[in-house]
Amino acid sequence: MRAQRLYSRVSTALRFACVRSGTASAAAAVWTTIRHASTEAVLAEGEHDDALYDGGSDAPPAAAQEQAQGDEGKEEHADSLVSRLLSYVYCSSEREGCAHLALPIDHAALRRIKNIMKVKSKKELANALHDVRPLETPEDCTRYVNLTVSYIRQQARMEEKAQSACSATRARAAYLQRQLRDLRLSGLERNVVLRKACTLIEERRVPLVVASRLLRFRWPDELATVAGGVRQPYVMNLVRSWATEALQKNELEPRDARALLNNCAFALKSAVRRHARCRETESHGEIASFIGALATTASRDLQTPAKAEGLICLMWSVHLTGCPAPAAFWDAMVQRVVSMNEALGGELGTDPDTAAPEGRTSTSAITRSPSPSSAPPSTKPPHAGHFFTTLSTRQLYRFLMVLKLVKWDGDPTVLHHLADQTLRNVAFELEAANFDSHSSGESGEQRAAAKQSIAPFSFASPNAVHLDVPEQKPLQLPKSVAVRRIQQVSDLQPHEFLELLHLAGELGVPFSVSATRMADQLLIPLVPYLNAKQLILLLQVVRRTRSQSSTLLQAVIDHLVMRGAAGTYALPLAKATLKAAAKAPAVFQSVRLDDFVELFSTTCEAQHTLVRAAEVAAMGDLLYTLSRRYEETSLPGQRIREVVNLLCAQADRLLQLQVISSSTADRLLECTVLLRMRANKVQYPAVQELLASRAVAIDREERRREGRQERVMKRADALAAGAEEGQTPYPSSESPRWEQLSEEDLPQVTRAALSVYRELVYMFERMVTVKAVLTAKDFVLFALNMKKAGLYSILQGAQLFQQGHLEAKVSYTTPASLKAAQGLPRNLPAWMEKTVTSTVLTKLSNSRISPSDTDDDVLKVLGHVHCDAAKVDSVIAMMATSPLRELQRQRRVWLYIAELARRFGSEETKEAMMVYLKKALY
Fold first, then answer.
1. Which of 143, 429, 730, 785 is most deeply buried (CB count within 10 A of its CB)?
2. How far does CA 785 lie from the centroid of its chain?
3. What is the residue extent of each domain of the chain?
């Protein structure tokens, strides 16, 4: 039956290939059909393989079906899993002692258990509990551990969705939690479930690989905070000691070692971080030795090309442990994978069966990575892209990605060659698929260009692209069709395919006609369905590879115009588009930019007051790039110059506040010279104002530099005179202090205040203006920089941010710009205010200021070593008008300011503060 089906497919492919009259297409179609049929045969033979190991990875029998259903969006219902676990937690009166808990007497608790078990009477509940098999045989123990793993995975997924960056996902998770509130295990029940599983591991009543499944996922907080319950590190220590004994006795099989690394990757990474945080060098070395021994054992039997998938999974597992492996390990892995890839050479074109893997390898460890880019999933056998390489396209992609993530510093020509072969595989599969079969009337030149698409990428030059070929209108395909195309030719998800192209661009693989065909048939249909980050990645691919596909760039531009200026990442996307277009002058001259000029001008006009000064200067550079397409007297040319005038006004405002240097303003002034705006002083007054402010700033910087030089010369002369007279050297205590310096020598904005200002404007730009998803590192750095600054610097930095950005007045030139600007809030996000307020209150709590403390102790919170009446008045004024509204409502802060007024303020300030504190009710 299978042979007849294979023959039918081959004959069908040949018939359609002959109709198209293309030799390359016919060969590719036949090869694709044979390859798919051979893969089906391998899958059929492997259906009855051992599910415990499954070709080098751990796929639990009890949890395999549940995991597959979760991948397909058909996750097992929570009540069925909880009901099966409750059967092991409670027991009936006739079988007392078989479980840790007896049925509760409380009617409410008993009713909850009945609802979960889906019974109506206590007798039916007792019968349901009586049917549960006790944990006597190894099979029963394994089944129980698998159920516990499924429950941990279910709770971990729910917690991950509740903490998602997508609001819709969080709302869905909250709804599910409300619906399943009465169907969840209680704290005592969770404690019993985990303790019973831990007891089975302690007694070693389950295999080592089965025990390690408890470490596959991060335990949610509700499981980690169970009173008296077991912790995940404790289970990790049990598994680690057990595996160490097996390694010492040489009883651990290579497939068991691979399963252990796969399951324990997250737990090992947590242990590495914990020991690094505590700076325990000895414990960290022990974990590294344990991981090295496991990796050595796991790679012992991975020698043939058919087991390349297991070797790549092993590399991912070692990377996900978080423990840096030595360079010798990665060099050995790279050498082995390269030799596997070159083992059969071109023989795969005639013998596709040799490329089929031995087993269906699953990389469940990879799916635990926090981001898709760092851990591409592989839940099915790779079967696309075997024509030019022994390994498949997906295997080569995952191999290149893991080397990129570990920052392998070996021979770059190896990576270049592999990336080149991977793209050739994709190009051949694309030619075989023949998605563009509807255009049968191709010219001879187009057919010649199509034949070059399967040529090696390294031999083609970007200059060989035929730009005079009439471009077809992009196909408006459904998302499922666009995704299916990419999966058919590369066996990759869309984001993985973009990462592959980006990686090839980083390695410097030259793109040619093949890249143009990929853009027209794969990327253009996908553009409407990409999110902001994926669009930026796609534009980086276009820029790095110098793609000559004007149709792709035009599709991205049209999509951005449709999104509008109020979308997320509107400014970064527009900037990336212009940078990508500027890399290919011929493409830049051929795309339509009228609507994009209006979009970018509106975005700059609406957001230029709420971004950093460097972004303002970058806007000017990109606007000049756009102006090269238009005459000065045209409408787009005039619009560009109006926006540049607004940018100059914002730069002038920041320069007067002394928060930027004159070099930042020089970039904008250079653009005004190139745009010939200097002569028209009436139409562009902000240019002249920026010139005047820049001259003042340069003069101020010159005077400060001359003052510093004079003080250095005076000190050198005094030292020389003292040496001639035989006196002691000039004491360091007599160096000029800040009290002796003039106002011109002192900066108006301190470094600490400038640091606070930069943190505020950066976080506001990312959170409010760009609407970006920040990482945990951004939040940590913001809180850390706030802790370094004193109260005066925090208030001064917030005041500078308010004067330079929040209170900036702009005369918008178009209604669209006004509407886009009104959609951006002009107040600080609640998280930023909470972080700053918490920092100040922590400083006040740690200082414990009392009337008996010295002035130096009181001034530590302020962050200054000197205070007078003028500074107290300045603190009160900045506090009263600060954009930190939550900080203004803190009575403890005002009590501290009252203490400053009592010690250093004038009589009027003291009386005003006393009256204010008596009226305040908070």
1. 429
2. 22
3. 2-48, 52-238, 761-919
